[in-house]
Amino acid sequence: MKDIEILVPVPMREMITDQLDETFILHRLWEQTDPESYLDEVAPRIRGLAAGGHRAIDAALLDRLPALEIVSCFGVGYDHVDAAYAGKKGVIVTNTPDVLTDEVADAAVGLLIATLRQFPQADRFVREGKWLEGAFPLTPSLRERTIGMVGLGRIGHAIARRLEAFGVDVIYHSRTPKQNVAYPHYPSLTEMARDADVLVVTTPGGPGTQHLIDSAVLEALGSRGVLINIARGSVVDEQALITALQNETILTAGLDVFENEPEVPQALIDMEHVVLLPHVGSGSVHTRDAMGQLVVDNLRSWFAGKGPLTPVVETPYPPTSR
Questions:
Q1: 232: annotated active-site residue
Q2: Are residues 80 and 125 in the same domain?
Q3: Residues 81, 159 within the same domain
Q4: Which residues pair with 253 in a beta bridge?
Q5: Annotated catalytic residue: which of 28, 157, 232, 288?
Q6: Which structural domain, as residue segments, surrounds residue 248?
Q7: How many Å apart are CA 294 and CA 159, to the nearest integer?
Q8: Residue 47 maps to a domain
Q9: pLDDT in tens, 99-140
Q10: 10-19 burial string, b = 16+ CB within 10 Å, else e?
Q11: How far is CA 56 from CA 6, 39, 83, 93, 142, in A?
Q12: Catalytic residue selected from 13, 194, 261, 314
């Protein structure tokens, strides 16, 4: 495989690039002084692409790579890749599902509890010496709440299973009911929000879910409501959320993702009761290594003639007839 050329547009973990360097001819685009000229030079020979970060792998880039066979994405979400267009060109797209499911589910439950019980604020309370002046204020609780799952894929189902142990009711919204799932299904997200005290967003990003959580959903969630987003920032209308928090339309929010991350609106930063994380849902060494290994293994498997390990739905393998 050492004659096969692979493009890496943005920095990725060394455990990924080191292994790719051992197996392929690796082009680190971000290291070039003139990336566009360099890409023009190597583009005709690029057969694989390792996609990390939020660099758009769009139609324009795909068209510049006539020999491209596979895009191996780091992450379960791949809304930065035009997978539908890739499929039309016969390019396989892969992601890294399953290996991050438990880590993200753990993080979501931790974020929910931290948001309700105000654990980050309590930590600051101790560090700032305020405990010497009096007790930390009482907080809301997870008790007697109904959790509405927005999406019930791998990660959503893992979160729901964990929440069952807390003795709370779980309901869910998805386009179609899931088979062999006992949780009540709501075809309407707004109706589910009315019956829920917490919304946990796990649905994929992309045009189909852009601003799925809007002002109407937040109003339906109500003044006791909590929004937890560990999916994609694009799924939530961020300005509508800010307004709902400022007007106390909902109680609070715990956010791991943002519309224009790493930029976070100052209005959210200024809200003491909101818990904000820097997109760390899968951010452990163990899980990021597992994700990185799957990026490498997808490329190795493909060029060994064994097919992709985890193709996305837009680029099934073997290809389905159209």
A1: yes
A2: no
A3: no
A4: 227
A5: 232
A6: 101-276
A7: 23
A8: yes
A9: 999 999 999 999 999 999 999 999 999 999 999 999 999 999
A10: eebbeebbeb
A11: 17, 15, 11, 13, 39
A12: 261
